[in-house]
Amino acid sequence: MTQYQFRDRADHALGSGGSSGSLVQVLSDQNPRTPQQSNNLDIVGLGKRYTSQQASDGVLQVLENINLNVQAGQFVSIVGASGCGKSTLLRLVLGLDSEYEGQILIGGQPISGTGRDRGIVFQDHRLFPWLTVAQNVGVALRNSPFNAAQKRDLIAEHIALVGLEGFEQSYPHQISGGMAQRVAIARGLVNRPSMLLLDEPLGALDALTRSRLQVELQRIWEKEKITMLLVTHDVDEAVFLGDRVVVMEPHPGRIKRTVEIDLPRERNRSDPDFIRLRDDVLSDFLDIDVNQIDTQALNPSSLPRSFADLRMSW
Ligand SMILES: Nc1ncnc2c1ncn2[C@@H]1O[C@H](COP(=O)(O)OP(=O)(O)OP(=O)(O)O)[C@@H](O)[C@H]1O
């Protein structure tokens, strides 16, 4: 589907005579999501400490010397054991917390708080139950410079982008969990950010909905050409979506290894190269060599296929 067809569908979905495709075109031209070098993310020597009773000395070093460069338009997956600081890392990149060591630079400039250039999607959709789908998406535009007509077009465009035309006036209790998460993705994108931060966004969904939304997420990423940073517990998902998978280790949270996923998209989960890369990430993650496991000694019916179906849940 072309951009223009998307826009046509968006206009149709709103059912408003005043919603013009040309206005959406103007908005897109003014603020395209074309990757630009100026939107590269550079994390340099990042450290984060919390005052916490978890630590004997009262100070918990959650992140230590994180160095990560993400080119504009890349899809980077981040995996690691529970508590290794993945969500903390996203919170810092989002700009929710300004107390850290090191630097977080976007386009070479230190970030300063939150900004419309970064959107976020959480595991729980966090929709307001008393607002409709369209209003929930529009919440993110509250402090934006767009006028009412522009906001209406942006909302329609992004509801169409996530495939929810016809549900604009539905309330969260009237849609499924997968649809609610689509609304959250639309809300994360409606300001036309250059970067979308995804904190285990599909973690609460059933397996079928989850794999469908993985494909959707990839389609959206390819269409919007923005940077995506995905935190996930699911190694399969990380390899399916990422240009790179960053494996973190805990206590304190550090980058253990980065694995390049140089496979054509859409990736085939039963392709031997996919399985090899997934097993590679997984063994690194678990600190084991999957080839050394004596699978004969285990009940084959209870085993995933060469870790192919394994979902990590920490
Ligand atoms: N505001 C806070 N004050 C004190 N400690 C915190 C705070 N936020 C997080 N932590 C601690 O920091 C560590 C990292 O938390 P974080 O949520 O970033 O990990 P995570 O890797 O995302 O975990 P999970 O995979 O379980 O979501 C944990 O030990 C957590 O208890």
UniProtKB/TrEMBL annotation:
Pfam families: ABC_tran. This is ABC transporter ATP-binding protein. Keywords: ATP-binding, Cell membrane, Membrane, Nucleotide-binding, Transport. Signal peptide: none annotated. Residues 1-12 have a biased composition (Basic and acidic residues). Residues 41-275 form the ABC transporter domain. Residues 1-40 are annotated as: Disordered. Residues 23-40 have a biased composition (Polar residues). The keyword Membrane applies. InterPro entries: AAA+_ATPase (IPR003593), ABC_transporter-like_ATP-bd (IPR003439), ABC_transporter-like_CS (IPR017871), ABC_transporter_ATP-bind (IPR050166). Belongs to the ABC transporter superfamily. It comes from Advenella alkanexedens.
